[in-house]
Structure formats: structure tokens, C-alpha cells
Write a structure and sequence with these properties.
Length: 253
């Protein structure tokens, strides 16, 4: 495996009772890049994310992370090795404060993740680091706010902060701007650009403005297979990509 790429797949395939959701996909994610995975609904994007992060077993093929075959590894082990994902639905604890949410992500460093009998004061040592992460995502002023009270876009920013708390080398962001208004989209774009400065980002995203402005490389999936790959300027003009998204003239009449 080349050291130029942090993540590679070889003929990655996933079948569901005869239906091939991901079909012999060869994906290479360059270190330090922002790589987007796009495609029409049903193209296999989320299934790919679930395979890469071990939420689903592969039917055939291999996954290599930092040169190591992780095809048969468990999800928790892959996360500990630095590959961490977010989800389409914001996965935060609504009735904890913003600071407490980030502190939970940091708690693993203390080795007390399952020490439920320990007092809350045992976590105070993490407060400075948690605040530093909140500052990175422009949430420091919301530190003591109960998470359920946050606007949607700010919840997504909090989820990125909790992902950063796990100190990832590779962040997988699943629809980071889904359901957001224009102002929130711009804020999250700036955030992704900032956190990608010293790590690699792989994201699934539907917003083409986000894709065009953030991505170094784009992989287009259609019916579980790679249709095209390259920079936005090239991929956006590919007639196969246009057809996959809008159909042929006969199909749209």
C-alpha cells in the first residue's frame, strides 16, 4: 500500500440478499485532502461509509487504513486507530451541556469511560481541552447551554467537536450540511476547511456548492460502482455524471 494514501479499498463489495449495494469499488483517499463521495440517491454512499467504519461487514474485497488491512477489524478498534465518523442525524446527548458532550469524547484519554461510580469532578481536568475544542468550532459561548436548545447548525458543529475529541487522523462526515439554511452551511463549510488543515476528511454530501468549494477530489458513485473521479471542474462536466443525476433527455421528457 502506498504511504501517499491514508485509506484504500480493493474491489470492495457488499450484497444484501442478492442486491449489490457496493460493487467492486476501488477508492484511494490521499493524506491531507478533502475527498467527497457523491452520487444520486441509492448510489451506495452510506453503505460505503458503513463498510469503511466497520458498521457493516464486507461481502468481498479489502480495506486498508494507513497501510494495514482492517477488513475484519471491529468498529471500536478502527475508531481507536484514528478513523472516526459523524452521522446524518446529529448524534449528541440533548440533555447534557455542550461542554459535557465534548468532555465525554475526551474521557477516553483518562481511562475512565466506564467508571460510572466516579464523581463528575474527576472529569474537570478535561475542561480546558474541551473548551479549546469548542473554540475551534465557534461554540465556546455555548459551553454551558443545554444541547437540546442549540440551533440545528450549531448541533452539527458540536458533533464535529465531539468527533475531534477522539483525535482523528481521518474524519468521515456523513451529510454535514443536510437540512441547513444558507448561513449555517457557510459556517460549517468554514469549520470543515479549518479542521481539515492537519487531517484528512472524507465526506458524503449532496450540496454541490459545498462540494465545489471544499473538495480536492470527488468520487461519483452510481448503482454501487465508481462512475467518475477527479476534481470538481472535471467531474461536473462528465456526461456520465450529468446523466446519472438528471437522466437522459428521453428520461426527463
Amino acid at each position: 500500500m502506498s504511504t501517499e494514501y491514508i485509506l484504500e479499498t480493493q474491489d470492495l463489495t457488499r450484497e444484501f440478499k442478492g442486491f449489490v449495494a457496493v460493487d467492486k469499488v476501488n477508492l484511494r483517499i490521499k493524506r491531507g485532502s478533502i475527498h467527497a463521495l457523491i452520487g444520486p440517491n441509492g448510489a451506495g454512499k452510506t453503505t460505503m461509509f458503513n463498510l469503511l467504519t466497520k458498521f457493516l461487514p464486507v461481502t468481498s474485497g479489502k480495506i486498508f487504513y494507513k497501510g494495514e488491512d482492517i477488513t475484519s477489524r471491529q468498529a471500536a478498534e478502527v475508531a481507536r486507530r484514528g478513523m472516526v465518523r459523524s452521522f446524518q442525524i446529529s448524534a449528541v446527548f440533548p440533555h447534557l451541556t455542550v461542554l459535557e458532550n465534548v468532555r465525554i469524547g475526551l474521557q477516553r484519554k483518562l481511562g475512565t469511560s466506564f467508571h460510572f461510580w466516579k464523581p463528575e469532578s474527576s472529569l474537570y481536568a478535561l475542561n480546558d481541552e474541551a473548551m479549546s475544542l469548542l473554540e475551534q468550532v465557534d461554540l465556546a459561548s455555548f459551553a454551558q447551554t443545554q444541547t437540546v436548545e442549540l440551533p440545528y447548525g450549531r448541533k452539527r458543529a458540536l458533533e464535529i467537536a465531539t468527533t475531534l475529541a477522539l483525535d482523528p487522523e481521518l474524519m468521515l462526515l456523513d451529510e454535514p450540511t443536510q437540512g441547513m439554511g444558507h448561513e449555517d452551511v457557510g459556517r460549517v463549510m468554514d469549520l470543515i476547511r479549518k479542521v481539515a488543515a492537519n487531517r484528512t476528511v472524507l465526506m458524503v454530501e449532496h450540496n454541490m456548492n459545498v462540494i465545489a468549494n471544499l473538495s480536492d477530489t470527488i468520487t461519483v458513485l452510481a448503482r454501487g460502482s465508481v462512475l467518475a473521479e477527479g476534481p470538481y471542474a472535471m467531474v461536473s462536466k462528465d456526461p456520465r455524471v450529468l446523466e446519472a443525476y438528471v437522466g437522459t433527455a428521453e428520461e426527463t421528457e
